[in-house]
Every structure is written in C-alpha cells, then in structure tokens.
Design goal:
The chain has 547 residues and is of the alpha/beta class. Helices cover 31% and strands 17% of the residues. Helix 1 packs parallel to helix 15 and helix 15 (451-472) packs parallel to helix 17. Belongs to the FAD-binding monooxygenase family.
Length: 547
C-alpha cells in the first residue's frame, strides 16, 4: 500500500513530501495496469498525471470523430477474464466517450484512483547517485523520493501545437486536436479550417463537414486510406467475442503487430488473379487488415509495394473522380503501409460537398496565421472563424524530453536523445538507473502495435524486473553500454531491411525539426520482441547491470 506520510529524507536541502518505492508518470493504458501490478507486489507506489482523470490519450483526444481503429475486443487488458467479460462494447470501433467510460471502469474496478494524483505535471527527475534513488518534482511544488521511476507517458502525448508564426494573434478560436476542450468548440455555422490530413485530421474532417458553414482543409502529405466498417454490437456479437477470450489471450501477444490477424499469404505463391482476389477480400474487411495482414513482402519488395499501393490508389480514384482531388489526396512518392494508415468513413466523399474546399499546401505552404485566418506563401488569405490543428506529435520521445530528466553525472535525457535516440529494448536507457520506460523508441509500442498488447507486455516485464530485484536483495538495475549498443544495432538492422526506413514521416521523427532520424518503432515483430525481452530476463537480465 502507498503512504502519504512525509519522508524525513533531506533532498537538496528540502524535505521530500513523499517517499515511494515506485513513481509512475501517466494514468493511461500503461499507467493503470502498471499501478495495479506494482501495488499487488506490496510496493508503495503512486501515479501522477497532468489530466484531471484517467485515460491518457483517451482523456486528451476528445475531438469530433475520435475513435478506435483497433477492434474494441482486442484493445483490451487480458490479465483478467472477469475484467474483460464484465465490460461490453457497443461497436466494433467505438468512439472516444465510450472508450473513456471503459477507462473509468478499469480504474474503478481495480480501485486505482486512491493511488493516482491528477492535475499534476512532473517537471523534473534527477537520479541521486549517492543514494541510488530518484528525486522527482512536480508543478505543485512537491518533491518525491522514489527508488524506481516508471514512465507511462505515452507515445503520442506531446503535441506539436506551436507550429505557425502568429498563432497567438488569431482573433477566432484555435485548438489542437489533442487538447480539445471538455466543453467542446462551437463549430455550427462557422468558417472552419483544418490543418493536417493524417489519421486525426481525417476523423475530424469527415465528422464536422456537415456541421460547419464552410470547411477549408489544408493538405500537405497525402495519405492512403482504407474504409472502416463499423457495425453495432448486439448481445449475440458481444457474446461471440467474449467467448474468444482465451484464444485472443494466447494469440495477440505473438502476432506481428499484436492484432488478431497476421500475414497469411505469400506473394510469389499466387497468380496475379489470386493476388487481386486476396486484396479485394481483405479490403472488404473494413479494418487495418490490408496493412497489417496482407502481404508482408510489400514492406521489403518495391515491386510488391507498388502493386499493393496501386490497388489502394485505384480504390481512392474511383471514389474521388476529380483529377485535382486525386492529385492532392492520393500518394505517389511512398508506398502503402510505410506511413500510418488511417481508417475512414466517407472521408473522400466529403470533398464533393459544396461547402468544403481543399487547399494543397505541399507546393504553397502555410506562411503564417494572421488575425483573420491562414496566410499561404503566395499571399493568399483564407479567412476563418475556427482553426483546428491536426499537426501531430513529437512521437516516442517528446513526452519525456519535455521533462527535465537527469541521470548519472547529471546527464540530460533531452540532450542525449537530441543527439541520438537510443534505448535498450524500449525498456531502459543506459545512464539512467532504475528508470523503466514504456512507449518509447526502439520497441513496437512506439508505433507499430495494437497498443494494449504491447503496453501490457512492457509493464509486465517491468513488474517482473522489479520483483526480481527485490527477491535478490538488489536495489539498482541499468542497461550496460554494450547491451544497449547490441539492441540498437539489432533494431537498426531490422529497420534497414524494410521500406519504412526509406520514407519521410513521423515514424522516423521527420516531422520534428532537428530530431535525430531513426525508425522509432521496432520492426522485427511484436512476437519476436516479446521473445527477446523474455530471453533477457530468463538469463538473469542479460545486457543489464544489477547491484
């Protein structure tokens, strides 16, 4: 159990407000489960979150149209059959309010709120080498003295919101999708501009088009899109997926991406017509299956990539019809699946509405935001009442580099990752003892995974690791430099073999000026990653120094 008793230890001349065994940053999917596990071990543990309630990404991302694109019955905790079966989803891909209610259900069912401090931002964390403990400070003026620092801050939780000159001078309403106000934004009858057509921008655009007086979409990078089929779930459908609990628990952790489906077909084994038949069948599934369980060769073979890409382009052209729309919205310079693939519902048809205007900004970029609206480089002004920024995130690293984290010798994580993004299996960083991480680079959870699958695996590894140290009477664990070098080399070898590494996208941090270029997510597969993590633990945490 945790304790609220003030610690007596002096930290930089001030008494710590609390002394813990483990401090968790974040109360989303990873943080809630991590808190539950460490509390079950009897540790004094507490989670801190800047939000006013649980949910992580599902607390912050409440913009119009926000919803799952993983099937609800796999975006689940699998450690308890009772917990799984006592919640019923209403749709295959539920929306944000339902997802947030599910997160509340988890927190309440496991009685987690009593050990979570909300509306609190961790501002700094420093490793005290004399005492082998972390000194953590918050924006409330608190100082927490903890043995373990566990980061569950999320891979997409540091929004790129200050991106254009003049934002503060806009006289209308300007909002980033990941900081959507709880009270909502008045869009009815307004002139609205949406900047960005990634997965988030697409969800917003298709949802608000019929509500606003005029919608202007500013599109830079075209996206391959797949239509979502989202049937309602009645009692029969709910019973059917709940009956699969044991099957899903046995299979999800070992597929390539942590989804229920996996690659089944080999391109070279099929005739052209058979390949087309497979693509058509998977396309009609109305999910991410074409991306995550179509033909694995499309990630490695440029000819296969082009064939699959042209199949999706063909589907998009048939819906868009207008050559100008096709030119702005259909990718030509990268392959299907090497960027994040969004699911959509009648998104492309939105551009045929008389109140929707598509503005391509690839060759005529946004220069600034003026009081009256958005100004392009050629001087064109688009007057607007509301600007919605769907401009993405500093993925993988941003959540932690925005905290002043200092390891051995005062080294700065922001400075270290500013030079070279390195981790050991996405679970620890050399130079930062007893800091255990989830959803950071060089693990599948950085991008290429059904997130609950990967975050459960990482938090379980962390819990087992802390339990091992306690059983052995040890207090400190840190990856060795050689161990980290070996993982980085393995990660880069896997990444170099696929086409993802040859594209420009947030998967490589290319959307953040000055960010070191490296494929953020481990691309060797979720099942393979799990095996390698388990092997290291079984070998007495090979690649780590324990004392």
């Amino acid at each position: 159990m945790t304790t609220d008793t003030a610690a007596t230890a002096e930290v930089d001349g001030a008494s710590a407000t609390q002394e813990l065994d483990a401090l968790i940053i974040g109360a989303g999917v990873a943080g809630l489960y991590q808190l539950h596990q460490l509390r079950e071990q009897g540790l004094r543990v507490r989670a801190y979150d800047a939000a006013s309630d649980v949910g992580g990404t599902w607390y912050w991302n409440r913009y119009p149209g926000a919803r799952f694109d993983s099937e609800a019955y796999i975006y689940q905790y699998l450690f308890s059959e009772e917990l799984y079966k006592d919640w019923s989803w209403s749709q295959r891909f539920p929306d944000q309010p339902e997802i947030e209610r599910w997160m509340h259900y988890i927190a309440d069912r496991l009685d987690l709120r009593r050990d979570i401090q909300f509306s609190t931002t961790v501002t700094s964390a420093r490793f005290d080498e004399k005492r082998d403990r972390w000194i953590v400070r918050t924006d409330r003026g608190e100082t927490i003295d903890t043995q373990f620092l566990v980061t569950c801050a999320g891979m997409l939780s540091a929004p790129l919101s200050e991106v254009f000159t003049g934002q503060d001078g806009f006289r209308g309403t300007l909002v980033h999708t990941s900081r959507w106000p709880h009270e909502g934004v008045d869009l009815d009858g307004k002139r609205v501009g949406v900047v960005g057509i990634g997965a988030t921008g697409i969800q917003v655009i298709q949802t608000i088009a019929e509500r606003v007086e005029h919608l202007t979409v500013f599109a830079r990078t075209p996206q391959y899109v797949l239509p979502m089929k989202n049937p309602a779930f009645g009692p029969a459908e709910v019973d059917a997926y709940k009956e699969r609990f044991i099957e899903l628990r046995k299979t999800l952790p070992y597929t390539f991406t942590g989804f229920e489906y996996d690659f089944e077909h080999v391109w070279s084994d099929l005739t052209p017509q058979q390949r087309r038949d497979v693509l058509e069948e998977i396309y009609e599934n109305g999910s991410l299956k074409l991306w995550l369980a179509g033909f694995a060769e499309m990630f490695f073979d440029e000819q296969v990539s082009e064939a699959v890409s042209e199949f999706v382009r063909e589907k998009m052209r048939a819906r868009l019809k207008d050559p100008r729309l096709c030119d702005v919205l259909i990718p030509r310079d990268y392959g299907f699946g090497t960027h994040r693939v969004p699911l959509e519902t009648d998104y492309l048809e939105v551009y045929h509405r008389p109140n929707v205007e598509l503005v391509g900004v690839r060759d005529n970029p946004i220069a600034r935001i003026a009081p009256e609206g958005i100004v392009l480089s050629d001087g064109t002004v688009h007057e607007l009442d509301v600007i919605i920024l769907a401009t993405g995130f500093d993925a993988g690293t941003g959540a932690l580099t925005r905290i002043d984290i200092r390891g051995r010798g005062g080294r700065s994580l922001a400075a270290d990752w500013g030079r070279d993004i390195r981790t050991t299996m996405g679970l620890m960083v050399h130079g930062y003892p007893n800091m255990l991480t989830t959803a950071v680079p060089l693990a599948p959870s950085a991008a290429l995974c059904n997130m609950t699958t990967c975050l459960q695996q990482q938090t379980e590894w962390i819990s087992d690791c802390i339990g091992y140290l306690r059983d052995q009477g040890k207090t400190v664990i840190e990856p060795t430099k050689d161990g980290e070098d070996a993982w980085v080399a393995h990660h880069d070898e896997a990444a170099a073999a696929n086409l993802i590494s040859r594209t420009t996208s947030w998967y490589l941090g290319s959307n953040v000026p000055g960010k070191p270029r490296r494929v953020l997510s481990y691309t060797g597969g979720v099942g393979t990653y799990r095996e390698k993590c388990s092997e290291a633990a079984a070998a007495g945490y090979e690649g780590f120094e324990i004392r």
